[in-house]
């Protein structure tokens, strides 16, 4: 039996749910939201600085070293956790950090596809 995907159906159905988290759950939700925002914004900041260096032709060696350091800064989740120790909190879900990285990469890919002319 073949399983259908959502795109195969004519209509997509959703479920609207209201939640009432306790204080501890609210804190966990806030921590995860802060972590994802931090990771996403770190990627934005690094790539913004790299793009700014690409427009200058002076101090090539310095720029190459800086770009290498910036790319290393966001290369892995561990590198981000070393830079921001609060991301190691046990309440922060690793999946939320991975999703933030993936969302940034998808957004950047779409941006380049739309603005490929410069």
Q: What's the layout of helices and strands?
A:
Blueprint: H1 23-53, H2 60-75, H3 77-83, H4 94-114
Helix pairs in contact: 1-2, 1-4, 2-3
Number of strands: 0
N-end to C-end Cα span? 48 Å
- Kindly name the structural category: mainly alpha
Contiguous runs where pLDDT drops below 50 for at least 5 residues: none
State the share of residues found in helices, binned by percent: 55-70%
Per DSSP, what share of the residues sits in E-state strands of 2 or more residues?
Answer: under 5%
Describe the structure.
- This protein is an all-alpha fold and 118 residues long.
- It has 4 helices and no strands.
In short:
This protein is mainly α. The protein has one domain (23-114). Helices cover 64% and strands 0% of the residues.
Keyword list:
4 helices, 0% strand, single chain, 118 residues, mainly alpha
């Amino acid at each position: 039996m073949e399983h259908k995907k959502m795109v195969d159906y004519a209509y997509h159905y959703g479920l609207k749910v209201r939640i009432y988290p306790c204080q501890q759950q609210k804190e966990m939700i806030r921590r995860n939201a802060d972590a994802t925002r931090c990771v996403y914004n770190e990627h934005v900041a690094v790539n913004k600085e790299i793009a700014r260096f690409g427009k200058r032709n002076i101090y090539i060696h310095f720029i190459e070293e800086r770009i290498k350091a910036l790319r290393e800064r966001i290369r892995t989740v561990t590198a981000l956790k070393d830079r921001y120790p609060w991301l190691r909190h046990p309440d922060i879900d690793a999946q939320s950090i991975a999703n933030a990285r993936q969302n940034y990469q998808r957004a950047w890919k779409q941006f380049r596809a739309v603005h490929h002319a410069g």
